[in-house]
Amino acid sequence: MANFAKPSAPRFSVEVYQNEFLPQGGRDVHAIVTVTSTGGATATRAAAGRGAAAVVIMVDCSGSMEYPPEKMRGAREATAAAVDTLRDGTSFAVIAGTHVAREVYPGQGRLAVADPVTRAQAKEALRGLGSGGGTAIGTWLRLADGLLRQSSAAIRHGILLTDGRNEHEEPARLRATLDECAGRFTCDARGVGTDWEVKEVTGIASALLGSADIVADPAHLAEDFTHMMENVMGKEVADVALRLWTPVGAEIQYVKQVAPAVQDLTARRTGAGPRAGDYPTGSWGDESREYHVCVRVPSAGVGQEMLAARASLVLPGAAGEPAAVLAQGLVRAVWTDDLAASTAINPQVAHYTGQAELAQAIQQGLEARKLGDVDGATAKLGRAVQLASVSGNADTAKLLAKVVEVVDAAAGTVRLKAKVADADEMTLETRSTQTVRVKKT
C-alpha cells in the first residue's frame, strides 16, 4: 500500500488483497483493490480556483404525479428539504420535468448561490409546482447539464426523481444524452411509487456514477432527499480515476466496483499513456470503495514473478499539467508448484465474486419470473438466497424473503410466492447490486 497525499491534498489510500500465486502456465490474476478517502481536498479544490459544489434537482411533474396527489406533494416537500440541506455557497437550480424541461428556480439559464434568502425563494417557487404532460427524461438531463456546465465547481451533481417510464422520448435519445453527460456530472436517481421502469432508473444512475433506489411511499421522499443531499454536501473531490498500468504482455480483463454496489467499469476505460488506462470513479467524501481487477499475464515457469499491474488513484491536473497521483498499490504474480498456495482463493476476492453473482442471480431470477419461467426463477432466486446467507447480506436476504418462501437458506431451497407486491419486487431488483463488506474476523 502507498499513500502519496500531502497534508493539503486529499488523503487517499490503496490496499490490494490477492493471492499472487499461480500454477505453472496460470495466467489470470484476481485482486480486490480497496480505496479509502478521508477527505482533505479543500486546499486542492481552492488551488484549482473552483467553487464548492453545484447541484441541480430534477423533479418529475408529468400528469401521473397527481395520481395519487401524495406523490406531487411529497416531491415538493422532498425538494424543499433538499434545498434546506444545501450548504451556503453551493450553486443550485430546480427543474420541472415533463415532456419538456422547465426551470423552476432561479430561472433565466442561471444557477443560484445557496444562502438563507435564495433557499427561501426556491422553496416559495416550489409551492407553484404542479403536474401535467408527459415524460422525456433526456430533456431534463440536457437542461441540467447546460446549467451545471456554467459552474467551475469541483462537485457537479444531479438529483432526479421520476414516477413513470420515459414514454415521450426514443430510448436511443436518452442513451445518447447519458453518453454526453457522463463525466460532466454525477447523478442520483429515484423512482417514486411503482409505475416506473427499474432498468431505466438504474441505467441513468449507473451511467452517471450515482445511486439508484425506490421510494415506494411518497411520505418517505423528504427523508430520502435529505440523505442524498447530505451525501452530496459531504463530497470533497471529484473526477478521481482508478488508473491501471500493465507491463508488456499483460492485459486488463475487467474492472468492477464491487462495494458498496456492483458496477462494471470495464467499458469506460480511457487511455492514459503507454499501457495505462483510467476508469472513472466519480466524486469522493470520507468513504471506502472496493474494485475487483482481473489481469491476464503471460504464462511463466515456476519460480518466476512479475508485477501484473499498478493501481493508482489519480486526479486530473490543470491544462497542460500531469495528473496528481493520490495513492498507489501493486498487483503481483508469482508462479509456484505448491498446489495449496496456487489454489487458495483470497477471502476478499471470494467474497466479492459471490456478491457479484448474487446481484446477477437476483436480476436473472426476477426476469425469469416475469416471463413465467417458474423453474428458472426458482433456481436463480434460490441461489441468490444461498449467496445472501453465506455472505451475511441480511438486507438482501430480507428483500428476497418477500418474493420467495425460504425453505432452507443454506441449501438455497425456495418456493416462489404466488402473490408479490409490486413494491417488494421492484425494491429487490433496484437494490440487487448493493453489497456487504467482508466480515471482520
SSE arrangement:
Blueprint: E1 2-3, E2 12-18, E3 21-23, E4 28-38, H1 42-47, E5 53-60, H2 69-85, E6 91-97, E7 101-105, E8 112-113, H3 116-126, H4 137-148, E9 155-162, H5 171-181, E10 186-192, H6 198-207, E11 212-215, H7 221-233, E12 237-245, E13 251-259, E14 263-264, E15 270-271, E16 276-284, E17 286-296, E18 305-315, E19 324-336, H8 339-343, H9 347-370, H10 374-391, H11 394-400, E20 404-408, E21 413-416, H12 422-430
Parallel strand pairs: 3-19, 5-6, 5-9, 9-10, 10-11
Antiparallel strand pairs: 1-19, 2-4, 4-17, 6-7, 6-8, 12-16, 12-18, 13-14, 13-17, 15-16, 18-19, 20-21
Helix pairs in contact: 2-3, 2-7, 4-5, 9-10, 10-11
Distinctive features:
single chain; 441 residues; alpha+beta; 7-stranded mixed β-sheet; 12 helices; globular
Share of β-strand residues: 25-35%
Output the structural class.
alpha+beta
Computed CA radius of gyration, to the nearest angstrom: 23 Å
Please tell me the overall pLDDT.
Answer: 93
Q: Major beta sheet, specifics?
A: 7 strands, mixed
Report the strand count. 21
Shape: globular
How far apart are the termini? 21 Å
The helical percent reads 25-40%
- What is the oligomeric state here? single chain
Uncertain segments are 4-9, 41-51
Helix count, DSSP H or I runs of 4 or more residues: 12
